[in-house]
Specification:
Layout: H1 2-23, H2 38-43, E1 50-51, E2 62-66, E3 71-78, E4 96-100, E5 108-109, E6 121-125, E7 131-132, E8 144-148, E9 166-168, E10 186-188, E11 208-210, E12 230-232, E13 253-255, E14 276-278, H3 286-299, E15 304-306
Parallel strand pairs: 1-2, 3-4, 4-6, 5-7, 6-8, 8-9, 9-10, 10-11, 11-12, 12-13, 13-14, 14-15
Antiparallel strand pairs: 2-3
């Protein structure tokens, strides 16, 4: 009987631990307890970091630290081909993290990113990431996400990042993006592998959409982004513009250059706020080019038109 009780208790304990780990993922142990404060973490980095400099230098690693509490709230690391030290994820009060021209061990952004639970802005530029940790979605306070030229093949579902309003993922290898459920204002996905505009839960919030240099098959979803002010779709192989484009009544800048368009829908003239239109290097006939020029000269005499 005693042995049975022990077995039952062990099973209950094992299941409870497993359930706890599933619901509340544990951050990997980094040995953060060995550092007295954030200053100690900065001091052991293998390259110099300027602390609270009077001037900001573009190519220098910089930390902003509260002088009394020795707490780092902003960190910019710029060390060409230098390895990103995992100890930076012990900076638990960090709100802004920028990494440029560096290398992650094995090109993997580690699970220890989850330690930065109050991070608000994350920028990683010109730094290869072949695998992104799912812990990215645990950063509930994140409002700005920039991952540019990182060779990213995919990202986890972003549903939990409900506060993100700026998403910049240019120059990667992405073909899909799920979980765009927040109040996104700016969505930049140029130089990727998208065949269509990703689904955004609340497209009416988006003000800027950049998807140039993607192999888009169609842009049917475009008319649901009714508050767009700026759209860049150059070099996307599109062959037509939906006639419902006149729904984008706040549109000011539209770049459709370097595509396979052979006509523009007449109701594009109803975009009263349009002040910049690029449609050069398409498949328009000479007659269509003259027609476009004539009508826009009448309806939008001050427009900047490239054709």
């Amino acid at each position: 009987m005693t042995e049975c009780k022990i077995v039952v208790l062990y099973v209950i304990f094992y299941c409870t631990v497993k359930y706890s780990d599933a619901v509340f993922p544990r951050s990997p142990s980094l040995g953060c307890e060995h550092y007295l404060n954030d200053y100690e973490i900065l001091r052991q980095l293998p390259f110099p970091v300027l602390i609270n400099p009077e001037r900001i230098y573009a190519n220098e690693s910089i930390a902003t630290m509260h002088p009394a509490e020795r707490v780092v709230n902003s960190l910019t690391l710029v060390e060409p081909n230098g390895v990103v030290p995992e100890s930076i994820f012990c900076l638990k009060e960090l709100q802004y993290l920028i990494i440029k021209h560096m290398v992650f061990t094995d090109d993997i952004l580690p699970d220890s990113l989850a330690n930065l639970q109050i991070l608000r802005r994350l920028e990683i530029i010109n730094t290869t990431i072949t695998k992104m940790t799912n812990q990215l979605t645990s950063l509930k306070h994140l409002y700005w996400l920039t991952l540019v030229n990182c060779s990213l093949p995919q990202l986890p579902n972003l549903t939990n990042l409900s506060k993100v309003w700026h998403i910049e993922l240019d120059h990667n290898h992405l073909s899909k993006l799920d979980g765009l459920d927040g109040d996104i204002l700016r969505l930049s996905l140029s130089n990727n592998l998208f065949s269509e505009i990703p689904t955004v839960k609340m497209p009416a919030y988006v003000e800027e959409l950049t998807m140039n240099n993607n192999p888009l098959r169609n842009i049917i979803k475009l008319d649901s982004f009714i508050n767009l002010e700026r759209v860049d779709l150059h070099n996307t192989t599109i062959t037509s513009i939906p006639p419902t484009i006149n729904k984008l009544q706040k549109l000011e800048h539209l770049d459709l250059s370097y595509n396979d368009l052979f006509y523009l829908p007449f109701n594009i003239l109803e975009l009263n706020k349009l002040n910049t239109l690029f449609v050069n290097n398409n498949s328009f006939s000479d007659q269509e080019i003259e027609t476009i020029k004539t009508y826009f000269n009448m309806s939008h005499p001050n427009i900047t038109l490239r054709i």
